[in-house]
Amino acid sequence: MAPTRRNQSGLTRAERRRFVDAVLKLKRRGEYDDFVRTHIDHYVSDGEDRLRVAHMCPSFFPWHRRFLLEFERALQRTDAGVTIPYWDWTKDRGTRAAPWGADLLGGTGRASDRQVMTGPFARRNGHWTIRAGVTDGDFLTRDLGRAHDPLALPTARDVAEAIADPLYDVPPYDSTSSGGFRNRLEGWTPARGDARYRNHNRVHRWVGGHMLGGASVNDPVFWLHHAFVDLLWDRWQRRHPRSAPYLPAEPPGPGSAQYRRVVARQERMPPWDARPGDLLGHQRLYRYGD
């Protein structure tokens, strides 16, 4: 039977400990930092004249699905019973909500430098040193809810509005796409300031610290956040069974601004020999539970 990814709020103390222990083992072996580097390498924006597969593009969902699978398989090589839990940020919304307990992710950063001081991923506890994408320090940083300028997490209504769109994606297949589930859920808008960021993007900004850029994988909450994003993609597919599950079906032609910059359904997504069409369903690989 396929393993089940569960809501982090329903995990037992022992299940939380097993997940944390598996993550820490990957960190000690250097494998965790390889995942950080992979995300940094493939965090390509609209403004860069090269292939985009991870963000601001149609393959946002399948690329991260494969990325989560690779990480989950690495965890299971240390503990076969571990899966990635998901964080439903439409329900667990506060800075003291379940994910931020000392037995799972730890809390926010201190005011002076945003350094996380509690939980298993605080540097002072001796297990978590930032080695990839280092900027101001080698410690994990967060600014949950941005107390100095409060920011709210996306709501269930925000998610419902994205899922209601029957089209997977629309031209020009980037951060400026005005419709399509992909960009509505990824969360780019033409607005300014905080209003520019919705859903997936807004969660990254709500957590703050390392979650603000390409090195966001340095914060283990990345995996819980993206597991929920992956679940929402599944909900969209169930809502729109007659819609094309991935667009574009064919590569944009030489006259398109997206020529060789986005991948079609049967084109390879670096760094793997995987295609979006290979990842449209997950039920044989894993399932989602309450």
Your description of this structure?
The protein starts with a strand and ends with a strand. The mean pLDDT is 96. With 290 residues, the chain is mainly α. The chain has helices at 13-29, 31-41, 60-78, 156-163, 181-186, 199-207, 221-239; strands at 4-5, 287-288. α1 crosses α3 (60-78) and α3 (60-78) packs across α7. The protein has a two-stranded parallel sheet. The longest helix has 19 residues, at 60-78. It has one domain: di-copper center containing domain from catechol oxidase (Orthogonal Bundle). The chain is built from seven helices and two strands; from the N terminus they run βαααααααβ.
Salient structural properties:
mainly alpha, di-copper center containing domain from catechol oxidase, two-stranded parallel sheet, 2 strands
Provide a quick synopsis of the model.
This protein is mainly α and 290 residues long. Helix content is 31%, strand content 1%.
Order of helices and strands: EHHHHHHHE
Low-confidence spans: pLDDT under 50, at least 5 residues? none
Tell me, briefly, the overall form.
globular
What's the CATH C level?
Answer: Mainly Alpha
What's the CATH topology label?
di-copper center containing domain from catechol oxidase
Beta-strand content:
under 5%
E-strand count: 2
The CATH architecture comes to: Orthogonal Bundle
The class by helix and strand makeup works out as mainly alpha
If you compute it from the alpha carbons, what radius of gyration comes out, rounded to the nearest whole angstrom? 18 Å
Tally of separate domains = 1
* Helical segment count: 7
Helix proportion range: 25-40%
Cα(first) to Cα(last) distance is 17 Å
Question: Can you give the mean pLDDT?
Answer: 96
CATH homologous group name: Di-copper center containing domain from catechol oxidase
Biggest β-sheet strands, sense, barrel: 2 strands, parallel
Spatially, the strands of the biggest sheet line up as 1-2
